[in-house]
C-alpha cells in the first residue's frame, strides 16, 4: 500500500529547532523559489572561510516585546527578487524545519518581514516530491502553541548560540590569550583579540561607541579584559565604555582599578576584614622610622604600588636596609608601601583561581635560588595543593570584595591564618592549568555562556 503524501495547506505551523524557534506560523508559497525568515539586526561575523551570521527575530507578529536571538553558518549570499519586483541581497542559512512528525533540512534567506502577516515563507525549494500542497486548506499539520515564548522554559531549550567575544590584550601570543582564543573557537564562538591601546572612544549621551584602527567596533556579547599594569588607566577607561554600551565584561573597570592600585587594594581588604600582612604607607620622608615601626620590625617588604609579577618588591633584612630602600624609592618619587614579612611562609604562597564565585584551581608556588618571591615569572616552581576551608573562604571573600568574576588570589600561610598578598584581576592561566591539568579557560567560557545566553526580551509595554 502506497504511503499517503505529506499534505501542506497554504498556511502551516512550523518549528526551527536549530534556531531555537519552537513555533512559527508560515505561509506556504509555491510561487516563491526560496524560503524566507523574518530577521533584523542582521550581522555577519567570523572567519572569511567559515562565515556566520547572527540576527534577531520577533517570532510573533505585533509582539515586538518578544525577541529571540539566533545565529547560524552562512551557506550563501544571493540576490532575491520579491513579489513586488524589488531585488535584495540576502544571507542564506541552512536549518532543519519540523512540521508534525516530519523534520528535514532547508535553505532559508534572511530578510525583514516586519510588515508581513507571516514571520516565515516556505518556498518550493523546501517542498519535496512526496509532499502535496492543498492551496484551499489551512493547517493540515498539527497546530503549535507559541505561548512557549512567554515562559521561562524556553531558556533551557534554546540551542547554543555562537558568541562574538573580544579579548582585550596587548599580547596576542602569550599563553593566556591563546588559550582564550583556542577554547572559544573550539566551542564555536568567534574570539577577537583587541589591542587595548589601539581603541578610541566617542563619548556622548545618545550613542557612545568604540573605534579600532579607524573602524567602529561591532557589538560583542562579552569582553574578557587582560589589562596590563602599564596601561591600567586607559584600559579601564575602555572597559567603562564597553560597560556604558551594555556589553558583558568578565571583570568590571572598578574592580580592576581597585585591585591594581596596591594601596587601595589593601584598604579594600581592610574594609572587608580580610586578613593580610600588616601594611603601612606614608608620604613624608620624616616618617621613615615610624613607618618601619608601624609595619613591624625588620625584616620588612618594601613594595612599589605599581609592582607586578614580583618586580618592584624588595626584602629589607634589617632596619638599616629598610631605611636605604625607602630612601631610594623616595628619591625616584615612587609610591610604595611597607609590609610585615611573614617568615613562616618560607618563600611559598598559594594562588587560588576564582571564577564565578568558586575556587576552580589552587597551586602552591615556591621560590627558587633563595629568592623570597615565589612568582613563576621569576623562576619559581608550582605544585598542586589542597587548601583549607579558611583559605577557600578568604579567596572567595577577596574576589567578592573587589567585584571580580575572575581573580587570582595570592595567600600566605601565616601562624594566625591565611593572609592575602594580592588580588589579581588578570590571572595567568599557564601555571594553574599546566600544574593542575584543569581547563580554566573552559570554566570561564561556561560562565560567559551562562551569563549572556540569549533569552526572550520582555520590554514593558507602555500604557495608552
TrEMBL record:
One Pfam family linked to the record: Rimk_N
ATP-grasp domain: residues covered: 266-449
GO terms assigned for molecular function: ATP binding; metal ion binding; ribosomal S6-glutamic acid ligase activity
InterPro entries: Asp_endopeptidase, ATP-grasp, ATP-grasp_RimK-type, ATP_grasp_subdomain_1, Peptidase_aspartic_dom_sf, Rimk_N, Rp_bS6_RimK/Lys_biosynth_LsyX
Cofactor dependency: Mg(2+); Mn(2+)
SUPFAM superfamilies: Acid proteases, Glutathione synthetase ATP-binding domain-like
Cellular-component GO terms for this entry: cytoplasm
GO biological process terms, semicolon-separated: SOS response; translation
Listed Gene3D superfamilies: 3.40.50.20, Acid Proteases, ATP-grasp fold, A domain, ATP-grasp fold, B domain
The keyword Cytoplasm appears for this protein: no
Keywords, comma-separated and alphabetical: ATP-binding, Ligase, Magnesium, Manganese, Metal-binding, Nucleotide-binding, Protein biosynthesis
Domain of life: Bacteria
Similarity-based family: In the C-terminal section; belongs to the RimK family.
UniProt name for this protein: Probable alpha-L-glutamate ligase
